[in-house]
Design brief:
This protein is mainly β. It is built from one helix and ten strands, in the order αββββββββββ. It has an eight-stranded antiparallel barrel. A hairpin with a 2-residue loop joins strand 5 and strand 6. It starts with a helix and ends with a strand.
Length: 197
């Protein structure tokens, strides 16, 4: 394990000295929504993402950009019962690994696409009932630990070391792990800024 870590540092340091390789940090806003549940009105929830990236020039105007991100996402849902509204806010926290292929189409303008793999770190549901105190419950046991998605986006290199982009992540697998439960998939819109070194 120790040798693997040292080898990783060696490879990164070698790439860092090569042209066409940049490390960076990024962060921004998440607007997320879980796929609709039966008899619920679903709306978006707001969160954030933050992490690191590496941009590796491959050929001409094409680059490969792996990232490692902490992502706070989820959804809000409402149900009606005898005139009373109950609101459920699901808060899901993932460690995400997007593997993005980028193509620059005009000066600093690029399009991107690629797969994303996610590990669920924690999840809880906040329940608000009209005229009652809210409660919070751990729901990680009701969800699958791994998620995978397809990402598409567009962005712009504002300066040589500053990048902005928008991206949508389409959840591809059902993350619901309860027997006979409705299929639930993640959908996340991201607005990001990144600084490259």
């Amino acid at each position: 394990m120790r040798r693997a870590i040292l080898l990783g540092f060696f490879v990164l340091s070698t790439l860092a000295n090569a042209q066409g390789f940049h490390m960076g940090i990024k962060g921004g806003l998440n607007v997320s929504q879980l796929s609709k549940q039966t008899d619920q009105t679903v709306s978006s929830a707001y969160g954030f993402h933050a992490g690191v990236l590496a941009e590796i020039k491959v050929l001409g105007k094409a680059s490969f950009q792996p990232e490692l991100l902490f992502s706070a996402q989820g959804s809000k849902a409402e149900t009606q019962n005898l005139g009373a509204t109950t609101t459920y806010t699901d808060k899901l926290y993932y460690l995400q690994l997007p593997l993005m292929a980028k193509v620059f189409v005009f000066k600093g303008l690029f399009v991107e696409a690629g797969p994303q793999f996610g590990l669920l770190l924690s999840a809880n549901r906040v329940t608000d009932v009209a005229n009652a105190a809210s409660s919070s419950n751990d729901i990680k046991g009701n969800l699958k630990s791994f998620d995978y998605a397809a990402n598409v986006g567009v962005g712009y290199d504002l300066f040589s070391h500053l990048m902005a982009n928008v991206r949508y992540s389409f959840g591809l697998n059902d993350i619901n792990d309860t027997p006979n439960g409705d299929a639930v998939k993640n959908g996340v819109f991201q607005l990001s800024l990144a600084v490259k070194f």
